[in-house]
Every structure is written in C-alpha cells, then in structure tokens.
Design brief:
Blueprint (H helix, E strand, L loop, with lengths): L13 E2 L4 E6 L7 E4 L2 E2 L8 E6 L5 E3 L5 E4 L10 E9 L4 E11 L7 E2 L4 E6 L7 E4 L2 E2 L9 E5 L8 E3 L5 E4 L10 E10 L6 E11 L7 E2 L3 E7 L7 E4 L2 E2 L9 E7 L6 E3 L4 E4 L10 E10 L9 E11 L7 E2 L4 E5 L7 E4 L2 E2 L9 E5 L5 E3 L5 E4 L10 E10 L6 E11 L30
Parallel strand pairs: 2-9, 11-18, 20-27, 29-36
Antiparallel strand pairs: 1-4, 3-7, 5-8, 6-7, 8-9, 10-13, 12-16, 14-17, 15-16, 17-18, 19-22, 21-25, 23-26, 24-25, 26-27, 28-31, 30-34, 32-35, 33-34, 35-36
C-alpha cells in the first residue's frame, strides 16, 4: 500500500543567511542593485513574497518576487551612513521578518571647506624670525584619505617672508618686516585632500604689518591757561588741548584724561581734548587749578602704551557771591559815665570775596549814645551814659561790601551798662527824732 503525504503550509519561510549586512558606495545611483535577498520555505505550497516594512527612508526598493534589493534614490554618507531595513518574507500564510543592515561607504565627493571665508593676521613689525603668524583651518566631510588635507601657498608673492606648514596650516615668519615698506601681504592658500581624485579649495590670507608704537603723543602748545568766573554754568568749556602722535592706527589714536590737579573732580575732558566743568566752581574754596592732562595712545597692549602730560592753569575769578560774616561777639559791656569818644569795642566782619567784593563798610542804626567807624568798625561812645537811667542798649550793626550788587549782613549788639560808684547815700527822711524811757533796758531799739 503506498500512502502519499500531502503537504500543508505549516512552516514559515527562513532567510538563507543572517544577519544580512551589505555595503554600498555613496556613488551608486538609482536603479543599481544592492543585493538579492533569498529565503527558503520547506513547504511545497505557497509562493514567497518579499517586502520592506520600514527603515528605508525611501532610498531602497525590493522586488516582491525575486527579492532583488535596488536603490531608488541617491545616497549621501555625510547625511546618513547606515540604514536598517525591516524586511518580511511571506508564503501567503506564514512569514518571517529580518533586519537588513546597509552601510554606506565613503567616496571623495566633498571638497575641503575652510572654517573662515578669509583669514587676517596682524603681525607687529618688530616680530622676530620664527614668529607664529597664525593658523588656517579647513575641514573635509569625507573619511580617511579623502579627508586628509594638505595646505600650500599657491601665490608667488612673499614666499620668502612666510612659511606654511602643510599639515597644521600654521604660518611662521621667515624674514624681518618693515611697516614703512610694506603694510599688507596678500597670500592665496590651497587646501587639498588626499583622495584618488583629489579635491581642493582656495582662500585669501591677509597678513597685516602692525606699526611699532615708538612715538609718544606731543602737545602743542606745551601749556594752557584760562580765566573763568566762579559762577559759570555747569558744562561750560574752559579750554581745548591738542596732542598729535606720529604713529598710525591705534598707536596714533589719542585718549585724554585729567590725571591731577582736580581734587574735587570739578572738570572732565572730552575725547576731542575739550575741558568742561561738571560742578559749580567756588573761588573761595579753590581759586587756582593746575590741571595735569595726560594724552595716551591706544596701543593694543595697555602696558606698551605711551603718553605725555601738559599743565592747564585755570584761574577762577571772583564774583560777589559771599555776604559779610560777623566774627565778633554780639554782646559787650561799658561802664557808665565813660568819657565821650571812648572806644567800646572793635566790630569785625569778614567777606571771603576779593577786591571790592570783599571790602567792608560798617554802619549803625540811629543811636544817640554810640557811633561806629565805617572803615575800622570801632564802636565809640558819643553821648552820656547813666546806668541809673538805662542799664543796656541794643544797637543794629550793618556790614556791607562794595560788590555790584552789594551784599550785607546785620548783627544785633547788646551793650550792657556797668555801674560806677557815682551816687552818695541819701537819707529819707532827712531828720529823725525819738523818745527813750529812762528805764529802757540795754539793747532796746531806739530808732531805725
């Protein structure tokens, strides 16, 4: 008896080899075959069908019948270098999934790119041979030899002045510089990779020779002076100083500062050298300023900056802004019956102004007993004084300067009258009488 066992679709397909890993050059174009994916099914019924479930990013296509995997779009390793495709093989009822790894290999499709569009290096003119001028840098998105760069100077000018390291891109100085002869060098530099078909890029390098800061600023003239009234408004211009520097660039640019002679910070100086007031001036506090103005160049290294100084004399002229002030006591005493024209006291007032503004004249309110010297301020007796009639006097003293307009001050002066023994005792009444008993005891009061 022969028994034929009929097949049943009870086994899933299996991929011929796993894991599936392929390498594709980024030079491959759409339509090129990557590989053929094969699977086996022990069943005899059912037809195998292949399809991509995901991970292809639209770059790959898989023939459902043959399993041929092809490119549908160009690849770029610099954008994405590995793809992991999820692939399924199905016999209609059973299926098996696997991951297909596709690694994108590099091709020399990217030229070197400099990190800057142009390089500019500043070199002091006193730099010695071997001085490190600067470094140029470039990058290549490729890999391996395709990204290994070599730098060369392709311009002919100044090859004897500068040396370029082909691997590091570092420029060094090989000759002495002279700013007065050449201020700028312009070099053309090439960066080239080491691929089989090398790619390159060029850029311009500017080497600027910096002037040596060997000249100090010079003031012209060598000193300045000006007279101002003490009541000038804040912000008034006093004087403008000027200095020049024979150097160039920042070495010849001058900054002005007031470095002395201004203890209260009454002035400031602008960058054009103009000195102005920033506070109210007071001649009575400071009548003369000897400002020290410093002109400093603006060399890049502060410790190498050069400077010079000049003296600016500012004389503050007086205005009548101070009233007289009394410095003598506002109380005194005089003995009665003192002789006429006798001195009682010298009244003194001071005025901090000068000239006519500080010249003081004295005056006294109308008084029949005292007089006051207008110039010397001496208070004298001009009439009889009797303490028994009046024991004090209050007089008003005025001190006035000769300014235009004048200023004045008043002082109330109390003059006390001291007693003198100029009155004899007077009995009242002038006659007394009493009667005493003959038998009055000793000590008995007779009369008051």
């Amino acid at each position: 008896v022969e028994i034929t066992v009929l097949d049943k679709n009870d086994s899933p397909p299996s991929f011929a080899s796993a894991p599936l890993h392929y390498t594709v050059s980024e030079e491959f174009g759409p339509g090129q075959t990557v590989s053929t994916i094969r699977a086996e099914d022990p069943d005899t019924i059912g037809q195998l069908e292949y399809k991509i479930l995901g991970g292809d990013d639209g770059k790959f296509g898989l023939d459902s019948d043959s399993g041929v995997l092809k490119l549908t779009d160009s690849l770029d390793r610099e954008t994405k270098d590995v793809y992991r495709l999820s692939v399924r093989c199905s016999d209609g009822q059973q299926y098996t999934d696997t991951v297909v790894t596709i690694e994108v290999s590099d091709s020399n499709d990217n030229p070197p790119v400099f990190l800057e569009q142009a390089y500019s290096f500043d070199i002091p003119e006193n730099a010695m041979r071997g001085f490190r001028v600067g470094q140029i840098q470039a990058a290549d998105a490729d890999l391996g030899a395709n990204a290994q760069l070599t730098f060369t100077v392709i311009s002919d000018w100044a090859n004897d002045v500068f040396s370029l390291n082909p691997q590091t891109g570092v420029f060094t100085l090989t000759s002495k510089l002279d700013y007065e002869e050449v201020q700028h060098y312009i070099l053309v530099v090439q960066a080239q990779d080491s691929g089989i078909h090398p790619l390159s890029s060029t850029l311009t390098v500017y080497c600027n020779v910096l002037d040596l800061n060997d000249n100090s600023p010079i003031f012209d003239p060598m000193s300045y002076s000006n007279d101002v009234f003490e009541n000038i408004t804040i912000g008034s211009e006093i004087v403008t100083v000027s200095a020049t520097d024979l150097d160039s660039g920042e070495n010849g640019k001058i900054a002005y500062n007031i470095t002395g002679g201004d203890p209260n910070n009454d002035f400031r100086i602008a960058q054009n050298g103009t000195i102005t007031t920033i506070r109210h001036l007071d001649r009575e506090t400071i009548s003369l300023y000897n400002l020290i103005v410093t002109a400093t160049d603006q060399a890049m290294e502060p410790q190498k900056r050069l400077y010079s100084t000049v003296q600016v004399t500012v004389i503050v002229k007086d205005v009548n802004d101070m009233a007289p002030e009394f410095v003598t006591p506002n109380e005194t005493a005089v003995i009665e019956n003192i002789a006429k024209n006798s001195m009682v006291m010298a009244i003194k007032a001071i005025d901090k102004d000068e000239g006519r503004n500080g010249y003081i004249e004295y005056s006294l309110s109308q008084n029949p007993v005292f007089s006051l010297g207008s110039v010397d301020g001496v208070l004298r007796v001009s009439g009889p004084i009797d303490r028994e009639l009046r024991n004090n006097y209050t007089v008003m003293v005025t001190a006035r300067d000769r300014g235009e307009p004048p200023k004045s001050a008043n002082m109330s002066l109390l003059v006390r009258i001291l007693d003198e023994n100029d009155n004899s005792p007077i009995f009242d009444p002038k006659q007394y009488s009493a009667t005493v008993a003959e038998n009055a005891s000793i000590g008995a009061m007779v009369l008051r």
